[in-house]
Design brief:
By secondary structure, the protein is mostly helical. 70% of the residues lie in helices and 0% in strands. The protein is built from 19 helices and no strands. Helix 11 packs parallel to helix 16 (335-344). It is globular, with a radius of gyration of 22 Å. It starts with 6 loop residues before the first helix and ends with a helix.
Length: 425
């Protein structure tokens, strides 16, 4: 597996990009986004980004130098063809059932036209409520996980897929794109796009200076393409705005996120859930299946942490807080740095130590070549590539890790059972 996208290198790449995104001239930024520019020459923000980078590198380095050995039982090479076909069947059924249910409620063609057109705003809250009321909110993480697992298996294993298998797979990819669009949620479409590019880079085996430079160029291209495509797809949310929609969204969703982080650090923006750790650990406090049964919210209260009981309302409150601070409420991302500072103040860099350690552990097992482990690391890369957003460990990502972990446990147990049968134990 190519090591260009190792956790430490990724953190360095993205930290440099983070600084660059803050360097827009004050007047240019304010004219485009219609708000005060807090981030320009904000040395506290630069210092915090550097501290977080050092924290991440420290956490990763602790795992690097540790003497923990990777057991051979984790070295699961691939999914066999029957397992792949079973996952494809599950993926097809989930997608078709979702489309049928969604169509009866809203009309797929109507929402697809809206997603590719304009005036989507009034429908977003209605769709989010539909997802919550019908337990469909995990459709995207489930389908994205299966699509990633199978694509990694295609590229990193010796398993042979028939033309019918490939047709079914790519048909599901197309169907998944349509599902993401009708949900008026373009982020997952970009993640789907990143799956294919990231896997290709991880598979790349360059040993010369030229090939290494080519890989670095690919990384830069992936990040730029993701940012540009994301901003272009957001055109439907800013209809009626006379400004160039691509530039407006590119600056609004990324540079403006750092402006919000800067405003949080200067205490001009009081973000919802401040001091509760919800902005960095939503995926833990709201973890599917286990959070309610183990009463995580009550545990947090005993620790002196007030966890918002309704994540959706907490998200809605962010727009009110932005309006109160005089910031453009169309953009409510705060970057990972703003989230960490909001939750832990200057101690936020310690959270990055844990983040770096977790990423390095997943990476350590991924470089052994196992399909499931590599798939898990692809999602680590996703979380890092979206540092310019806000919550990187949300409910969706925790559900992804639960699915991948469950599959890893299944493969480990079934592998041991098969080994004992072969050996006659």
């Amino acid at each position: 597996m190519n090591k260009t996208l190792s956790p430490v290198k990724m953190a360095i790449y993205i930290s440099i990009i983070s600084i660059i995104l803050t360097l827009l001239p004050r007047r240019m930024y304010s004219d485009m986004i219609s708000e005060k520019n807090y981030m320009y020459a904000d040395y506290n923000l630069y210092l915090f980004i550097l501290l977080c980078l050092l924290g991440f590198i420290s956490g990763a380095s602790l795992i690097k130098v540790s003497r923990i050995k990777t057991k051979s039982s984790y070295k699961i090479r691939s999914l066999n063809i029957l397992e792949s076909r079973a996952l494809l069947l599950i993926l097809t059924l989930i997608s078709l059932l979702f489309i049928l249910k969604f169509n009866s409620q809203f009309g797929v063609l109507k929402m697809l036209a809206l997603a590719l057109g304009n005036e989507t705003g009034p429908y977003r809250l209605t769709i989010n409520k539909f997802l919550g009321d019908t337990n469909q909110s995990y459709f995207i993480p489930v389908t994205l996980t299966i699509i990633t697992l199978i694509y990694v298996n295609m590229n990193f294993s010796e398993v042979k897929y028939s033309n019918l298998d490939k047709f079914l797979y790519w048909s599901n990819v197309g169907l998944n794109i349509i599902c993401c669009l009708v949900l008026l949620n373009k982020g997952p479409v970009i993640n789907l796009f990143l799956v294919f590019i990231v896997v290709k880079i991880l598979r790349f085996k360059g040993r010369s200076i030229y090939s290494s430079m080519a890989t670095i160029a690919q990384v830069a291209l992936v990040i730029f393409a993701a940012l540009f495509a994301f901003s272009a797809l957001q055109n439907s949310r800013v209809s009626g705005n006379s400004k160039n929609p691509v530039y407006y969204n590119l600056i609004g969703y990324f540079s403006a996120s750092y402006n919000r982080a800067s405003a949080i650090m200067s205490q001009d923006l009081k973000y919802p859930g401040q001091g509760s750790s919800i902005n960095t650990l939503e995926g833990v406090w709201y973890a599917p299946i286990v959070s309610e049964r183990l009463k995580f919210a009550q545990i947090g209260e005993r620790l002196g942490i007030t966890i918002p009981t309704d994540g959706f309302k907490n998200w809605q409150q962010s727009f009110i807080k932005l309006r109160a601070a005089g910031l453009n409420e169309e953009f409510n991302w705060t970057t990972i740095y703003g989230a960490a500072f909001s939750d832990y103040n200057w101690y936020g860099f310690l959270w990055f130590v844990l983040y770096g350690a977790f990423a390095q552990i997943i990476y350590r097992y991924a470089i052994m070549g196992g399909v499931i482990q590599i798939s898990a690391y692809v999602f680590i890369i996703f979380s890092m590539q979206w540092w310019s957003t806000a919550i990187v460990f949300n409910r969706d990502s925790s559900f992804v890790y639960i699915l991948i972990g469950s599959l890893l446990v299944y493969k480990t147990i079934s592998g041991k059972v098969s080994f004992r049968r072969r050996e006659g134990i």
